Amino acid sequence: MSSDNLSARLVEIEAMLDRSRRRFEEGTRLVDEAHQSLAEIQQLLIGSPVTLSAEDNEEAASRLLASLKASGTELPETLCGGRLAVDPIQRLIRIDGHPIGITEMEYRVLELLAFARNNVVTRQMLLKHLYRRADDQPQPKIIDVFISKLRKKLRSASGGAEFIETIPQRGWILRDIETASAA
User: Fold this and answer.
1) Cα dihedral 95→97→102→105 (10° resolution)
2) Cβ contact 113:172 at 8 Å
3) Is 141 helix (H, G, I), strand (E, B) or coil?
4) Could you tell me whether strands 84-87 and 92-95 are parallel, antiparallel, or unpaired per DSSP bridges?
């Protein structure tokens, strides 16, 4: 190829890269605006925190979809049955159909408990779910704080029902309220 052809091809490639970069930046901006709008709507509806990161939303969605694909089922409307409903799409918690306000970290604790419903979830599993980066590791007792606050909010919203059961020396179980009252 001649140097003129190479120069023309290089200019063409640079123009394509520039267009691709602008499209990518526009797409990223639109995704960020969508996440912000969702957070603002949640704040208006139930007073949930506005500080939802795009990574948290995408991580939760990808975990849920991977789990569903592996099981061969369709996306559930909620992760729990009975009185408690954990809505993974809207990231809302409802008791008897009424939304309750919880923090993002409390939601993520309840989300993991809901994924493993009626099975033990250990402190280590919760720490790994909440803090993915090695430099983000807090004291393990923080899980007790999240569980305690969640229990208080769920108990208050449900008229005293206990959804989270402690299994001594092992962890916690989220039980459907009908299952817990029938046992």
Assistant:
1) 80
2) yes
3) coil
4) antiparallel
